[in-house]
Amino acid sequence: NHQVSIAAEGQAGGCNRGRLFSWGGTLTVITDVVADAADLRVTKTGPATVFAGDNISYSITVTNNGPSAGRNVLLSEPLPANTTFVSATQNSGPSFGCTAPGGAVRCTTATLASGASATLTLVYNVPLATPAGTTIRNTASVSSTTNDPTSGNNSASLSSAVTALDWKQIPQIGQGGPLFPIH
To answer: Residue range 75-94: average pLDDT?
Structure first.
């Protein structure tokens, strides 16, 4: 969208059927370009702890606070260390297509309208051999080809602590030997 204003100073030398053929002053053209802007925001929730060997799920919401539509919107999340990718599922909102090349998740949509939001669930597995106390940290980021005037809310990070399984043998009453291991 462009608005053009023309201001003229001086006197015209004459006109011929509405066309200016001689100009004795200064012509100033002022343009005011109104650029598209989409304030994209990403939020993320997930558990504070996860057992080694279990899956960990993160809920990620991408919102366009406007005022314009976001074009070529990309939600990306690198594969968190000490995990393997399981799935990416969309729960609500305009359709995003997701891929996971090398385990890194990339979800895209051509347009995210002003005021629209989409929620996705990303699931990773924490291998059983992951030591207790390991921190699983990951960051989801959103970007667009539309100018974003507030880029400080374009990423969200979470950390989850790995808890090891604590196996204890329970003696079988009356027989003195172990019955079975429990968690």
So the answer is: 95
Structure tokens at 28: 């100033």
Ramachandran angles phi, psi of 19, nearest 5°: -105, 140
Q: How far apart are CA 19 and CA 6, in angstroms?
A: 16
Residues 122-174: pLDDT tens digits?
A: 999 999 999 999 999 999 999 999 999 999 999 999 999 999 766 555 555 65
In this structure, the number of other CB atoms found within 10 A of the CB of residue 3 comes to 9
DSSP states along 94-157: S--EEE-GGG-EEEEEEEE-TT-EEEEEEEEE--TTSPTT-EEEEEEEEE-SS--S-GGGSEEE
Q: Is the peptide bond before 67 cis (omega within 30 degrees of 0)?
A: yes
| Average pLDDT value for residue range 14-32 | 52
CB contact burial 30-69 (16+ within 10 A = b; e otherwise): eeeeeeebbbbbbebebeeebbbeeebbbebbbbbbeebb
Handedness of CA 108, 141, 145, 38 (dihedral sign): positive
Quick one: which of 34, 29, 89, 28 has its CA closest to 58? 89
Q: For residue 81, what pLDDT band results from cuts at 50, 70 and 90?
A: very high
Q: Is the pTM of this model over 0.70?
A: yes
